[in-house]
Amino acid sequence: MMTDDPLDRRQIPRAGFDRRGFLKVLSASGVAVAVADRAEASPGAAVADPFGVLVDTTRCIGCRNCELVCAEANRLPEPDLDDAVLEQERRTSERQFSVINRYETSGGEVFVKRQCMHCITPACASACLTRAMVKTDRGPVLWRENKCMGCRYCMVSCPFDMPKFEYHSANPRIRKCTMCFDRISDGGVPACVEECPGEALSFGPRSKLLHEARQRIADGPDDYVHAIYGEHEAGGSCWLYLAAVPFEELGFRTDLATHPYPEMTREFLYGVPVVLTLAPAMLLALNRATRRERGEGEEAS
After folding, report:
1. Rounded Cα distance, 16 and 13, in Å
2. What CATH number has the domain bearing residue 78?
3. What is the per-residue pLDDT for 261?
């Protein structure tokens, strides 16, 4: 029975497999698809003025209410609210999208909220071969389960180490903060912003948040370091931070480039689909050619 699969070996002649046949195998194996429009492998597109959140660490009281409401909004296990967990720096996980850390700094005790930064041009979306990780036109970076092939390149590429994998699940997913995309789409605000009693979190268009941050620095030059974390780091992010002490004292990476990380790997990423598609076809063609030559040699002997 014949099939429509161009790689079905019953449709490939066993005799006369020459150079032309070799090229046919490559063509039939999807090389044309691999060199198609580069837009399919392009980095996550930057949004003109996405929504974002400004975190003023001088206002955070460390109540950790944001952790609790984040868990409720995302149907995650209730976080451990015992203050003992603050003795060590914590990271987000597949079971907790937002964490508060406590730092002893040159300016005293400071609490800092951490979650996905929702980069303007996200490296995770750029590295995703199937466009499962995408930058939405509203700002949040989302993961789409129906498109993910499980390569986890998004985890490796993120300079903030935010995408997490459910290693112990029978049906593992990539998990991280979504900036409460559904709430934003309905005209609301992220749950953590809505429930912050100290008004340490402000939600709105990124341009307005930057203006607000600069205004606070101008109004209180002695209250803030004169920088906004997330304005330029890794090309900029939708989550922005103000602080009264240098950001390195708060566990932030200060070694990041100021241009989008996908720009550094764009040509490589464009080539990845070509390699993944071409390599199997090349090996198949070589196998057929080798088997053909071996068969001829046996007949001659």
Report:
1. 7
2. 3.30.70.20
3. 73
